[in-house]
Amino acid sequence: MTRLLSRTFPSVKLRDCNFKAPDFKKSQTQVPISSSSSQQSQENSKTPKSKSWSVYLILSTTEPIKTYVGITTDFARRLKQHNGEIRGGAKASSAGRPWLCACIITGFTCLSQASSFESKWKIFSRKLPRRKKDEEMSQSDALLQHRRRALEKVEESLECSHLETDWKI
Description:
GO molecular function: endonuclease activity
Radius of gyration: 27 Å
Protein name: GIY-YIG endonuclease
Number of strands: 4
Keywords: Endonuclease, Hydrolase, Nuclease
Strand content: 15-25%
Oligomer: single chain
Organism: Arabidopsis thaliana x Arabidopsis arenosa
């Protein structure tokens, strides 16, 4: 089979049956670790290099009232981006300016945790049936209540004891 492939595709090399892979176990050498290098690694482990990730919910202040869920390491900068004060921000949030912080959830150690949480929150928000509007309840209150119920479902499905939820509105 290899010969047929090598004739059809000249870049494919024929295998040499006598070839033996090098034994890397024999060639490895052990290097002693000095006390100064271990002290340096302990000092480096004390300083946190990873950023803390947050998942946030913002609420538009213009009609039609909308909500937006996102993730960031710097919420103040991200809110300015959504409001058009600095460059960046999501295209989906350009129509609802200005935006207000409704909720921020902190305590994620990595991007993948925050992304997974954000995704689940959005999925539960879409799948959860909306309640009928009370005449007393405003549109923004109804949206926030819906997002809060979806957040409760996310917290039931994931381990969230290490997270801190702060509702601003």
